[in-house]
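INFO batch 0412 | record 1 of 1 | parsing
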Amino acid sequence: MFYKHYLIFLENEKVGRRQAFHKLIQQESDFDNINSYGSQLDHLGLEYYTHIISTSYQSISSIEDKDSFFRDIDYYEDFEEFLEVAKTTQSLCAMDVARYILMLQPTTPLKLQKLLYIVYERYLLQFQTPLFNEAFLASNYGPIIIEDYDASQKENQLLSVEDDQSIFSMSDKATLPIKYKISRLKNSVYLRELVQSVIAEYKDYSAEDMLNIIQSNDTAWSRAHDYAQNETMSTELIKEAEPVKYAIN
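INFO prediction complete | emitting tokens
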């Protein structure tokens, strides 16, 4: 007996794992669902391609065993979950990276902003291009992105710039689009390793400890803050200033 597997692949010109939706075709009415899936993707203007493959088993592993083309893929069997991933845009924003940090390590809003800045600075210095378009401001609390707080307050994920008590994390459902965005980056492996290393480096540091390091003499924060409180920390300023020193563990 053979089983038909219907697959939808997202078009992805970026480096990273492919994403696919899998449905086992077991009855005639399944084709109506398949047409509905395509209509929803078309309505959103998303690019995709499809495959139908037959195997002797119902499992996804049987597809991978039959043809190596179908290996190293993130498969989804819940179409709504797949659709959320498909809606994800190609470019990262600051909140995406902040959510990725929270996914790996629940933390306070104040510490989150500092982890986010250090990741941003090191990525910028490594590739000479910003990780996202939002700019940091040199506040009394260290580098912050106002858009992050405005957006996160609506989502009840973060509170205020002054809050260093509440601990926030990410729900499992919210992590899927973030993982997909990260996977589409040309430098996705570097970014994942960078975030993990920064989290590990500062795991025993409080937000106040990190603030003291970031506010060291001649860093981008100190240069911008000396000029004016809440001054924008431009990419050129960050490139020219002293980088934030590595933590001593």
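INFO post-check: The chain is about 45% helix and 15% strand.
INFO record closed
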